[in-house]
Amino acid sequence: MDLLLVILGFLCLIAGLVGSFLPVLPGPGLSWCGLLLLYFTEAVPMNYWMLGVTGAIVLLVTVLDYVIPAKGTKRYGGSKYGIWGTNIGLVIGILAPIPFGFLIGPFVGAFVGELIYNSKDHKRAWKAATGSFIGFLASTFMKFVVCMAFFGLFIWITWQHRQLLF
Questions:
Q1: What are 29-80's pLDDT values in tens digits?
Q2: Whole-prediction pTM value?
Q3: Biggest alpha carbon–alpha carbon distance for the chain
Q4: Spatial contact of 38 and 5, defined as CB atoms under 8 Å apart
Q5: What's the average model confidence in pLDDT over 77-106?
Q6: How many angstroms separate the Cα of 77 from the Cα of each of 118, 131, 161?
Q7: What are phi and psi of 59, to 5 degrees?
Q8: Can you tell me the distance from the alpha carbon of 107 to that of 104, in angstroms, rounded to the nearest whole number?
Q9: 102 with 164: CB under 8 angstroms?
Q10: How far, CA to CA in Å, does 146 sit from each of 32, 39, 78, 140?
């Protein structure tokens, strides 16, 4: 049973790494579930502090994942229309059958939102869309770093308890 839990945990961590790039999958949450499955094994003693701290990190990263692109839009001179456009573009980009729609969506959404706000200022709309894209890249990088840290933690804990697990 322990081997099955380790394999399922490892698969959750791999899905979490993929999910750090694809907004459809909750990357850090899946990675945390992988750690949780490892602690459900009989060989690895439960560490509530580790799970609590990593769970708090997941909650923080999840909130920041939605806040950072909107703040990027605002930082580069975007209005509330651009922020809303970023969020709507992200959702449409995820659902659209366009390749890399999750990358294009926030950029186009912020651009269109700013054009709705002020149809004559294309330069400002372009700048706000660029801010949205930079914010999206920053949040993606943050999720990837967290998922990689959880992956390293999983490997380290598994290696420490390898004689009991395998």
A1: 999 999 999 999 998 899 999 999 999 999 999 999 888 877 777 788 777 7
A2: 0.80
A3: 68
A4: yes
A5: 79
A6: 12, 8, 52
A7: -60, -45
A8: 5
A9: no
A10: 10, 19, 28, 10
CA count, 13 A, side-chain hemisphere, 91: 6
The DSSP secondary structure of the chain, one letter per residue, reads: -HHHHHHHHHHHHHHHHHHTT-TTS-HHHHHHHHHHHHHTSSSS---HHHHHHHHHHHHHHHHHHHHHHHHHHHHTT--HHHHHHHHHHHHHHHHS-STTHHHHHHHHHHHHHHHHH-TT-HHHHHHHHHHHHHHHHHHHHHHHHHHHHHHHHHHHHHHHTHHHH-
Residue 51: partners with Cβ closer than 8 Å, 6 or more residues away? 35, 36, 39
Q: Are 57 and 28 in contact (CB under 8 A)?
A: yes
- Taking CA atoms, 70 is separated from 80, 115, 131, 137, 144, in Å, by 9, 16, 9, 12, 19
In angstroms, the CA 98 to CA 51 distance is: 37
| Residues 151 and 30 sit within 8 Å (Cβ to Cβ) | no
Whose tokens are 């912020």? That residue is 110
